[in-house]
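B., you asked whether I could sanity-check this one before it goes into the benchmark set. Here's the sequence:
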Amino acid sequence: MFTHAIVRIPGTNFDAGLTTVSLGAPTFDQVLDQHQHYCQALAECGLAVTTLEADLRFPDSTFVEDTAIITPRGAILTRPGAASREGEVEAIRPGILKFFSSLLTIEAPGTVDGGDICEAEDHFFLGISHRTNQEGASQLANHLATLGYTSSTIDVRPRTTILHLKSGISYIGDNTLVVMEEMADNDEFRNFSLIRVSLEESYAANCVRVNDRVLVAAGFPKLTAELSARGFSPLILEMSEFQKMEGGLSCLSLRFKAGD
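And here's what the prediction gave me:
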């Protein structure tokens, strides 16, 4: 069960962030509205939400997930693979230190984006991508091992349709992975129950289990219906403006259980 989340309000220069998709420019009023509803959803799921102010130095900084890996046993600051985002880590540090007295770190030349890291109970899938390199994944695997977790790597660099590992897979509890169809045959997933996401709904593979609910992007009825059929409780959120900047539901928060 998660107890807390950290989010950051999008800045007025959100549309100056990094993206490789051509879905048009985000409309800022809608960005703020969708972000507000996202934060309300986290609160409805029982989380105490820490909201950080917009940081105009970093247009992508509302995507706080990329800056840290937070587990019940400790927190690890990342080192994002895009040079323009490196400063986001120091900006998030004070917020995380309110909950964890010490932080592990990824050091150069390693790079890790949190969006490449999928936690499935005590095992972590580490995506090797154009943002997370092998050195960063190795450092992270060592940190996770010291905290008592296992890990394995999945190379997503050949896949041109996703930026991060979690663009294509999500762990939603109950030994279940939501996986985009083109990744579903990976042998790493053989011991999990899979919910396969069709090509036309692949964006929705990035969904988030938050306590008793599963946050899922609006506009993807097949996945939403399958989640319900499997006994999950979907909570649908509009994400159109974040999709334009290659962001998903998991990207917008750091979710964790704070220590006793």
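One thing to flag: The chain is about 20% helix and 25% strand. Otherwise nothing jumped out at me.
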